[in-house]
Write a structure and sequence with these properties.
By secondary structure, the protein is an alpha/beta fold.
Length: 1049
């Protein structure tokens, strides 16, 4: 139950106009009585407020009569009392009485009239009559401008509240922004930039930009608001707590959990110290912090905070209040997630008992019934589940009618239950009814429609009605792609990652069905599906981010385009009947026009956003070439299983469609790959007869699993372009032992490796065969080299670039950045002497080729230097880094105990995979050993996440001459979430990484040979790399030495 504090000052200023009357003393008495009434109203002492108001009215009637303008002030005050009592109808009546009175006496240009209109705007807002509210605010604004002028606090406040109506209730964001900017300008001029009212407008603008996903603007505005409120109101003021809470919410949205926790804890502690834990608002603060801890996996803390919120609600609003029922429903949902069904059931039943006393005709009651149905379905109590779903069905029908999406959602729940009970006919009928409602009310591009289509397809699949299932799965694939493509255009990276995870279930279903289907045409969809998902989405998002940074004009256009798509997403999420069709059409036209403009004016934008289909890949292949998209997915057999399967989608010129081939299960790969000794693992997987320990026969396991099923499809092929998936990223395909083509598998001298049979080109996606490179041509090449790095803390000599020349903000070391080979904090990184010679020799070689080369070694190879690349000038054509690399596995999947590393508990081990891999640069041992860098300095631990933020779109080749730089988390279709992924996200065209720790000396030999073949001999990068592999293999028989480097394009 998140709560975003949105600052909206509702003010009812007393704007009484002095009149010339018989007795000035009587007028002062009336004013004092109204002011006294206002004070009692502010203190919620309404009985006394009415008494003083009555006295004021009697004085006016006695001394001034019924036609005097003081009567209007009295009507306004009585309306104000009712407004504070939340008796909005009575408040409206008195405000209208004041309005009519003033109009009868031709007093429309009096300040009382402007105030009356203003208050009517507020009361209609509270009555949810937003068009009326807007109308009265506009009238009040015009009158205030005429009577007081624009440069007056009352005018600024009216403009502020009008903007709130446009933004929060009418969705007219552009108008809201213009009005808040006007209010900000006025308040800056008349009040100054340190006034709380100025901070209020900053806060509101931040909320607007937050809705558009413009997080950089939001952050700066809320930081400024926080500074003003801290200085002028103090840290104990509720408005300071609100902005701290807002900033915490922002960082939570951005995935910056350390900052989010710090701020949310600060808000929580301030509130607890100054207002206590028995305040009603405390429940909201506690809920917000609980959600953060839930996201961080600190479930014990989350649970306790939710219990605290429950206890506060119990004491402040009572156990019969609907808000208390909502809180315990949240707790029930929490316990259901963790299968603590007894607690969950007790809380759900308690909530139901509360709501059915007074809320049986309310949505919360219907939701509670549905939640009980879900709970009993999970418990296997189908009788009770069906009973509650049927009750919820009746409740929703009475509340909203049988055409509402909520009614359809309950039908889906009931159909799911019947599907679980194998009552397919009942389930099918309900799904069809629900699908018709969803399509009419929400359209096909909606999660509910997708869920229904998926479940219907599964019914037909399980009934072996493949002809009925196939079109549903095909439609499902297209809808998913359409929805994700739309989301790509407005979601942040973190939001997009989370959004993609919601589609992983459907991917497993689709591929499982396609693998079983006898129809080859499903392979077309499979290949297109793989092209879409594998590596394209987040790369496209990051590429467009770099394009947006290319110049200020592009940045403005990208931000505007993103705001259009955010607003469209908000409209698309509404039921069709509630959408503003005019606004949707206008936004779509603006977005399309702007997108075409960007494609025309920003180099590379159009290609980054272009979708590639399987036939385009086929057209790009030469006669003796083949393309292979490997894929892996969770296997479905009526329901999800614990098996992960691997398959290959093979494509050759002239084929009518790709061919899908089953390969193996994850557990079969794990049995080969999960060797604790790296050297032994490499030798067992790749060694040929004569060098393996004990003279064992060569391992043919990888060949049998991954390549033998493909042999018959690759006859006559010389070049294979392939894209790995899942654990296949850990395999050196070129070194897989293989027999002569199509020969029977056996040991002996006829054994070679796959590289003997084909030139193997590893790609992130075979999409790259179609989409041209955006990297610059080889003319005027530049190179930046890092190596021979001093990892020790030498603060007085550490080189850095000026702080304002770097594009990335300081990122402190988190204890999540741990190398499994390093041990606990306190151990440092050792100097690599071979890397200095490597960089020196490469520098000489490049300079001979007239390549402008810069080498950073010793203490100059800093994190600041790396982050300055691509700032103010294109990034280097060649980026070579010879240093330690690290990768730390997903903490959620580690079996051993996670050790304590120095007390930083905010992110003990980061959940973000790009934070758990990286490179080690100058001075890193200070932060590694002590837990923090020197003040004002980067920590020297360059994470993959930080690399992804650097603009390397000018870099043709990045070489990571370091240990295990090819490793990272395997995440769905998105590939290896580690260094190679981050460099691609940063814009690098090609990269060379290592799959295991290659000895210093042999690594240097490999690199020198490769660069000579490329730069001196003039070979293409791909050919130079292939030749170097062959040369190294002849010189070093041990695959541990020659097979570890891979070229990824």
């Amino acid at each position: 139950m998140k709560k975003m504090f949105f600052s909206l000052v509702i003010c009812f200023p007393l704007m009484v106009r002095a009149q010339v009357v018989d007795s000035a003393e009587v007028e002062r008495v009336v004013d004092s009585l109204i002011n006294l009434s206002r004070d009692y109203t502010n203190k919620r002492e309404f009985e006394e407020a009415f008494k003083q108001s009555d006295k004021a009215q009697k004085f006016v009637a006695q001394y001034f009569g019924e036609k005097h303008l003081k009567n209007a002030a009295c009507y306004i005050n009585v309306g104000r009392i009712y407004h504070y009592k939340k008796e909005f109808d009575s408040a409206e009546a008195y405000y209208l009485r004041s309005k009519d009175f003033l109009e009868e006496h031709s007093a429309q240009l009096q300040s009382e009239y402007a105030l009356t209109l203003y208050n009517l705007g507020i009361v209609y807002r509270d009555l949810r009559q937003y068009e009326k509210s807007k109308t009265y605010y506009l009238k009040s604004k015009d009158i205030t401008e005429k009577t007081l002028g624009k440069e007056h606090p009352d005018y600024a406040q009216t403009v502020n509240n009008l903007a709130t109506i446009y933004f929060k209730f009418l969705g007219e964001i552009e108008k809201a922004e213009q009005l808040w900017l006007e209010a900000l300008s006025i308040r800056e001029k008349i009040l100054g930039k340190e006034h709380p009212d100025y901070a209020q407008t900053l806060n509101n603008l931040a909320a607007l930009y937050n809705s558009l996903g413009q997080y950089e603007k939001v952050e700066s505005l809320w930081i400024e608001t926080k500074k003003i409120r801290e200085k002028r109101l103090g840290k104990t003021h509720p408005e300071y707590v609100a902005v701290v809470h807002n900033l915490g919410e922002l960082y939570l949205q951005m995935g910056q959990y350390q900052k989010a926790e710090m701020l949310k804890v600060e808000a929580y502690n301030i509130f607890e110290r100054n207002f206590g834990t028995q305040h009603a608002e405390y429940a909201y603060i506690a809920n917000g912090l609980a959600l953060l801890y839930y996201d961080l996996g600190q479930f014990g803390k989350a649970e306790q905070l939710w219990i605290d919120a429950k206890n506060v609600n119990e004491k402040t609003i009572g156990m019969e209040h609907p808000d208390y029922a909502a809180t315990i429903s949240n707790l029930a949902g929490f316990y259901r997630q963790f299968r603590q069904y007894a607690k969950s059931e007790a809380y759900y039943l308690e909530a139901k008992s509360i709501l059915e006393k007074s809320q049986t005709k309310s949505p919360p009651y219907a939701v509670c019934l549905a939640n009980l149905g879900v709970l009993y379905a999970e418990l296997g109590n189908t009788e009770k589940a069906e009973l509650f779903f049927l009750e919820a069905k009746v409740a929703w029908e009475k509340l909203l009618g049988s055409g509402h999406p909520n009614y359809a959602l309950n039908l889906i729940n009931l159909a799911d239950l019947y599907l679980k009970m194998n009552q397919y006919e009942k389930a099918e009928n309900l799904y069809f009814e629900a699908r018709e409602i969803c399509e009419t009310a929400q359209g096909k591009l909606h999660p509910s429609y997708i869920l229904i289509s998926s479940n219907l397809a599964n019914i037909y699949w399980n009934s072996h009605l493949f002809e009925k299932a196939e079109p549903l799965f095909m439609e499902l694939s297209k809808i998913n792609e359409n929805m994700i493509e739309k989301a790509l255009r407005h979601l942040s990276e973190k939001e997009l990652n989370s959004y993609l995870n919601t589609f992983s279930k459907y991917q497993g279903q689709l591929f499982s069905f396609f693998l079983q289907s006898a129809k080859n045409r499903t392979a077309l969809t499979s290949y297109d599906n793989t092209l879409f998902y594998k590596g394209f989405l987040l790369n496209a998002a990051n590429q467009t981010k770099h394009f947006a940074l290319s110049d200020s004009t592009a940045t403005e256009k990208f931000n505007l385009l993103k705001s259009y798509h955010r607003r469209l997403a908000s409209e698309y999420a509404k039921p069709i009947a509630e959408r503003d069709s005019t606004r949707v059409a206008d936004l779509e036209e603006k977005a399309n026009t702007l997108e075409k403009d960007l494609a025309r004016t920003v180099a590379g934008y159009g290609e980054a956003m272009r979708q590639v289909k399987w036939d385009e890949v086929r057209a790009a292949l030469k006669p003796d070439e083949a393309a292979i998209e490997f894929t892996h997915f969770q296997y479905w057999d009526k329901k999800a299983t614990d098996s992960t399967l691997y398959a290959a989608l093979v494509l050759r010129p002239g084929w009518e469609q790709p061919k899908m081939v089953y390969l193996c299960e994850q557990r079969q790969l794990d049995s080969l790959l999960n060797e604790t000794d790296a050297t032994a693992a490499v030798q067992n997987l790749y060694a040929l007869r004569g060098i393996e320990p004990g003279g064992k026969a060569p391992s043919a396991g990888l060949y049998r699993l991954l390549w033998q099923p493909l042999d018959s499809l690759l006859d006559g092929v010389k070049t294979v372009h392939f894209s790995p998936s899942g654990s296949l990223h850990r395999i050196a395909f070129h070194a897989i032992p293989a027999p002569a083509p199509l020969a029977p598998l056996k040991g002996g001298t006829d054994m070679g490796v796959l590289a003997d049979r084909y030139q193997l080109n590893q790609l992130f996606s075979t999409r790259s065969l179609v989409v041209p490179s955006t990297a610059p041509a080889d003319a005027n090449m530049t190179a930046t080299l890092f190596g021979g790095i001093n990892y020790e803390p030498v603060s007085t000599t550490l080189d850095s670039v000026a702080a304002d020349s770097t594009a990335i903000a300081y990122t402190p070391l988190s204890t999540s950045l741990l190398n499994p080979n390093r041990g606990h904090r306190g151990e440092g990184w050792r100097y690599l002497p071979g890397t200095k010679q490597e960089v020196e020799r490469l520098s000489q070689l490049m300079e001979k080729q007239h390549i402008n080369t810069v080498a950073f070694t010793d203490t100059t190879a800093t994190e600041e230097r790396f982050k300055s690349l691509g700032v103010g000038s294109p990034s280097p054509t060649i980026l070579h880094i010879a240093t330690h690399g690290f990768f730390f596995p997903d903490p959620a999947q580690r079996k051993e105990r996670i050790p304590d590393f120095g007390g930083n508990t905010s992110i003990p081990l980061s959940e973000h995979p790009l934070m758990r891999s990286g490179l080690v640069l100058a001075g890193a041992n200070q932060a590694w050993k002590e837990g923090k860098p020197f003040p004002g300095r980067e920590d020297g631990i360059l994470t993959a996440y930080e690399i992804a933020q650097v603009n390397l779109t000018g870099t043709k080749l990045a070489v990571l001459s370091a240990c295990e730089t090819g490793l990272g988390d395997i995440q769905g279709t998105e590939g290896v979430m580690g260094l190679q992924r981050s460099l691609k996200m940063a814009g690098v065209e090609k990269l060379i990484v290592s799959l295991w720790q290659i000895p210093d000396k042999e690594s240097a030999v490999f690199m020198e040979r490769f660069y000579t073949q490329w730069l001196s001999e003039g070979k293409e990068i791909r050919d130079a790399f292939y030749e170097t592999q062959q040369w190294m293999r002849k010189r070093y028989k041990d695959p541990f030495v020659w097979a570890g480097f891979v070229l990824v394009e």
